[in-house]
Design brief:
Order of helices and strands of chain B: HHHHHEEHEHHH
Number of domains of chain A: 1
Pfam families (chain A): Sod_Fe_C
Largest sheet of chain B: 3 strands, antiparallel
CATH architecture of chain A: 3-Layer(bab) Sandwich
Structural class of chain B: mainly alpha
Number of strands of chain B: 3
Strand content of chain B: 5-15%
Strand content of chain A: 5-15%
Family (chain A): Belongs to the iron/manganese superoxide dismutase family.
Enzyme class (chain A): oxidoreductase
Shape of chain A: globular
CATH superfamily of the largest domain in chain B: Iron/manganese superoxide dismutase, C-terminal domain
Number of helices of chain A: 7
Number of domains of chain B: 2
EC number (chain A): 1.15.1.1
Helix content of chain B: 40-55%
CATH superfamily of chain A: Iron/manganese superoxide dismutase, C-terminal domain
CATH class of chain A: Alpha Beta
Largest sheet of chain A: 3 strands, antiparallel
Radius of gyration of chain A: 19 Å
Structural class of chain A: alpha+beta
CATH class of the largest domain in chain B: Alpha Beta
Catalytic activity (chain A): 2 superoxide + 2 H(+) = H2O2 + O2
Strand order of the largest sheet of chain B: 2-1-3
Oligomer: heterodimer
Distance between the termini of chain A: 48 Å
Chain lengths: ~160, ~230
């Protein structure tokens, strides 16, 4: 009886472990895309204001420097992935990060995602073909800085 | 016999040093021509895809590989180990991209499809049970790739067995796994999205209609000679 239970238990653990990549991939995909739709807007673009602009200037030197770093890191991703502007809740600093596939920012790096750029080919190929840099350049016209500011405020409250 | 591309890749990875210790100009990698027209693989792979895939994606790997090798030569000349190491991912990505796509064009054909014959069919049956089982395994493994990558039918030169493998991004089969690539399926979205959109399984199902079994058989024969 005990050996039967033990066998079933270890069998479940095998299955739990087997499911982890599926959970990360699809869970990450759901998390990432849910954020993505919110941080884009037809009324977006331009530059942020208030606390977000202040903290960007403090941590990158200027808005343009942050934009350049996030752009370069994102374009350079090999294969599928996302570029992120994230908030480190321990050091209270903004950081740029790139992650492969659908790896979600917070569980993977600890950074809280503020703004992300999807560079899986499906995000741009029909329109931009292989020219990923044009797509990443264009996306700055639709960044929803209000939503990004709200995400920063929420992240600060949790840290 | 190895393809000319493989030979030139192998040849130009190492810097050539002249008698005085100066680096001699190396051969640059070039984009191989397709063995058929851009529309030849229709209706299974559209001409639009083939054009972009060959003229943009593969060409970019070639260009970036050449640039990376120049930087590598300079870094080695200056004994800059940090820079040598920094270049490794760039070399793997673009070198792998060049290797993989060069194989890909050769193992597809407008006259392809059906089933292999001869030694290749024999060894497939021996190692998978049947051709359909091999096809099913390679299909499933390839469709299941998370993100960008390639599915491969490869030959293990130590055990003399065929194996199916999936690799991410442009990781090349032989350096990464030791398996010699016989047939590969590119499942980067650029390989199918314009035609199949997100329905990767339809693309992978369709590609079996254009497998160039003659070329795959030649690759097997060459692999056997090297093992």
């Amino acid at each position: 009886m005990f050996t039967v239970l033990f066998f079933q238990l270890s069998d479940n653990i095998n299955q739990i472990i087997k499911l982890q990549p599926v959970l990360k991939f699809n869970g990450g995909g759901h998390i990432n895309h849910s954020i993505f739709w919110e941080v884009l807007s037809p009324n977006g673009g331009g530059e942020p204001t208030g606390d977000l602009m202040h903290i960007i200037t403090r941590d990158f030197g200027s808005f343009d420097r942050m934009k350049e770093e996030l752009t370069n890191v994102t374009v350079a991703i090999q294969g599928s992935g996302w570029g992120w502007l994230g908030y480190n809740p321990n050091s209270f600093r903004l950081r740029v990060a790139a992650l492969p596939n659908q790896d979600p920012l917070q569980p993977t790096t600890g950074l809280i995602p503020l703004f992300g750029i999807d560079v899986w080919e499906h995000a741009y190929y029909l329109q931009y073909k292989n020219v990923r840099p044009d797509y990443v350049k264009a996306i700055w016209n639709i960044v929803n800085w209000n939503a990004v500011s709200e995400r920063l405020a929420a992240a600060k409250q949790c840290s | 016999m190895l393809s000319a591309v493989s030979a030139s890749v192998a040849e130009s990875i190492l810097p050539k040093t002249g008698a005085l210790g100066t680096l001699v100009a190396r051969l640059k990698h070039t984009l191989p021509d397709l063995p058929y027209d851009y529309n030849a693989l229709e209706p299974y792979i559209s001409a639009d895809i083939m054009k972009l895939h060959h003229q943009k994606h593969h060409q970019t790997y070639v260009n970036n590989l050449n640039a990376a090798e120049e930087q590598l030569a300079e870094a080695m000349h200056k004994d800059n180990i940090n820079q040598i190491i920094k270049l490794q991912p760039v070399l793997k990505f673009n070198g792998g991209g060049h290797i993989n796509h060069s194989i890909f064009w050769e193992v597809l054909s407008p006259n392809g499809g059906g089933e292999p014959t001869g030694d290749l069919m024999h060894i497939i049956t021996r190692d998978f049970g049947s051709f359909d089982r091999m096809k099913e395994e390679l299909t499933n493994v390839t469709v299941a790739i998370q993100g960008s990558g390639w599915g491969w039918l490869g030959y293990n030169p130590n055990s003399f067995r065929l194996r199916v493998a999936a690799l991410p991004n442009q990781d090349p089969l032989q350096p990464t796994t030791g398996l010699i690539p016989l047939f590969g399926i590119d499942v980067w979205e650029h390989a199918y999205y314009l035609q199949y959109k997100n329905v990767r399984p339809d693309y992978v199902k369709a590609i079996w209609n254009i497998v160039n079994w003659n070329a795959v058989s030649e690759r097997l024969a060459a692999a056997k000679q090297c093992s």
